[in-house]
């Protein structure tokens, strides 16, 4: 999976905000705020990644095991899918 084109991640002070660009501005009803780990995963999805690759990257970044984060990564991926942020 990877992210759709037309969204960028902006850091404003300590907050990470997903901002639409181009044609997505019209369809974007609310701002999306991410925490630090969500922003990390968002940036990872600029390239094609599996859930397992994302979990490994997050685990490495935060010095925990992949097993500890796989559920959270799967939940994050499902939210991205639900809100149509993932490329087909």
Structure, briefly:
The protein has 88 residues and is α+β, with helices and mostly antiparallel strands. It is built from four helices and three strands; from the N terminus they run ββαβααα. The protein has one domain (7-82): Arc Repressor Mutant, subunit A, CATH 1.10.10.
CATH architecture: Orthogonal Bundle
If you average the pLDDT, what whole number results? 90
Would you tell me which CATH topology applies? Arc Repressor Mutant, subunit A
Largest sheet data: 3 strands, antiparallel
Number of strands: 3
Shape call: globular
- Cα radius of gyration in angstroms: 13 Å
Give the structural class: alpha+beta
Count of domain modules: 1
Task: Encode the helix/strand succession as letters.
Answer: EEHEHHH
The CATH C-level class name:
Mainly Alpha
Cross-sheet strand order for the largest sheet:
1-2-3
Q: What is the tally of helical segments? A: 4
Helicity, as a percent range:
40-55%
Distance between the termini: 8 Å
List low-pLDDT spans: none
Strand fraction: 15-25%
Descriptive account of the structure:
The chain is α+β, with helices and mostly antiparallel strands. It is 48% helix and 17% strand. It contains 4 helices and 3 strands. Strands 1-2-3 form a 3-stranded antiparallel sheet. It is globular, with a radius of gyration of 13 Å.
Provide the fold topology:
Layout lengths: L6 E6 L2 E6 L3 H4 L4 E3 L1 H9 L6 H12 L3 H17 L6
Helix pairs in contact: 3-4
